[in-house]
Fold:
Amino acid sequence: MTEDARHFKTELAIIGSGIAGFAASIFALNRQLDCAQIGNTGAVAYTTGYLDLLGKTEDNEGAFKNTHDNPWDGLKQLRTTHANHPLSQIPQADIEEGFKQFTAFLGECGIAYTSPGVNNITALTPVGTLKKTLCLPATMAAGPKAFAAKKKCVIIDFKGLKGFSGRQVVANLIDQWPALSTQRVSFPEMLSGEIYPEVMARALEVPATRVKLAELLKTAAGEAKIIGLPAVLGMHSPDTVRTELERLAGLEIFEIPTMPPSVPGIRLREMFEQVFPQKGVTLIPQQKVTSLTFNDQGAQLSLADNYGPITIDTQAVILATGRFLSGGLEAHIEGIEEPLLGLPVTQPADRTSWYHEKYTGPTGHAIHKTGIEVDSSFRPLASDGTPFDERLFAAGIILAHQDWIRGRSGAGIAIATAYKAVEAVEKFLRA
Ligand SMILES: Cc1cc2nc3c(=O)[nH]c(=O)nc-3n(C[C@H](O)[C@H](O)[C@H](O)COP(=O)(O)OP(=O)(O)OC[C@H]3O[C@@H](n4cnc5c(N)ncnc54)[C@H](O)[C@@H]3O)c2cc1C
Structure:
């Protein structure tokens, strides 16, 4: 095969295909910016599908013990205690607008989400514990409602499916939800051996599989009118699959996230990969940008895929490359580095202070607050404290001063900072 050098020109190049990168493309489309997105496979396939804004903040000892029913009140508190947290830099109206545009886009493209409200939703985790989140896929929305009303409900799990146990969910919730029980069924046509959520989800896109499963669910539900299932209700049209199963089984049905890799994350990734090119985004999925340089005309990105080298000339860049899991930051013996541009990384003074002695300690680990610094326009800073380049912007969890895991704020940081970065890019390009 001969290799063809391909060359693209765009106004904005977004590096990263996590929630921050995808959100940045949505906001760029909404602002009629010409954009390209390049992203290697990343953490989005692991996400539960929940869009957290802020579930917890730190108390005076630095322990994440303040739980927030109202994330907007939590943000007010965060602004006074942690002024350098990325969410503290963003007005509430912009965070709300970012969530509204993001969830509206998902709904228009076939994956309905609940709208951001005043209060957090108390949602179920894969193991039957509870967490606070702001928005969830419509396929999961009936679960928290059934929990709040303590309705009679059966959690269904499947023979051969690892990583989701109805018994575990019930054991963890039974004190708060006495009318909860569990039943195990065999997934149609997958009667022996290990079975996988992704394969089950694709099988449920086929109407005949839904008919067979509905019969099994009817029997398993007994007298309950509502059942919870692991998140396997279709890959490309989950809302249709759920509605159809509900109709066939005569039950209300909700999904519960599974352990990663998870269908709700893969759904998002596959949906974006399908719709972005149709909407005019130059999308180069599953690839890594190997070099990014700035010159008099703008910036140039280099990468390669199976067909050969690609260069992208652009007037602005958003770096949304995540942290360690996605390769946006790298941990070395000498310290933590940002590998693409060598941006300075705010980090603990030495390696021995990366982790707290107690792994599950409530204060978390200092390494989880490492990241790059940005100015008020979300431009990464060089070591002298000035913008690294006026054409470079950043978004997502690569930003310093936040522990999104303990703060329950992964998607919130990604969406809100992407909203602000794209806003700043538009201002820069149209100045
Ligand atoms: C197990 C797990 C569960 C989660 N559950 C939740 C949840 O319940 N609720 C919630 O709100 N959030 C959750 N998250 C967090 C969420 O999925 C995102 O990780 C988070 O929102 C941060 O998004 P991000 O886009 O900044 O970074 P990431 O998601 O890490 O994405 C970074 C992207 O950059 C790409 N990249 C890196 N370097 C390059 C390069 N050189 N060239 C091209 N691409 C590159 C990576 O491949 C990746 O696609 C979960 C994450 C994990 C891992």
Summary: Residues 410-430 form the longest helix (21 residues). The chain has eleven helices and 17 strands. Residues 215 and 234 are 17 Å apart (CA to CA). The two ends are 45 Å apart (CA to CA).
